[in-house]
UniProtKB/TrEMBL annotation:
<protein>
    <recommendedName>
        <fullName>DUF2188 domain-containing protein</fullName>
    </recommendedName>
</protein>
<feature type="compositionally biased region" description="Basic and acidic residues">
    <location>
        <begin position="60"/>
        <end position="80"/>
    </location>
</feature>
<feature type="region of interest" description="Disordered">
    <location>
        <begin position="59"/>
        <end position="102"/>
    </location>
</feature>
Amino acid sequence: MSTVTVTARRWAGGWELILGKNDATQVRNPDRAIQQVRDYLDTRDPHIDHSGVEVVVIPEPERRITPEHPRNGPAQEEKPLPFTRKRTRSDPACPDGASSQH
């Protein structure tokens, strides 16, 4: 199984998922980041099945606000981001009641 590492950068509309220079996709909800990357890879190269690709999402640290940039608003404390979640049989988003790690 191959591994793809992406950097997640927060923006007003959600998250930019950066795979490399000039290579990115976007997602509104971080819970969908891993599947969005697989879908993007499938679109980019439809002859390869990317369903087994391990996707590692590394959140980019929040940019610190300095007095020179007051329009950006107050600095925010960095918090862990929910880019992965474990789906269980009771999760309605989990197909066929199977348990999977996303």
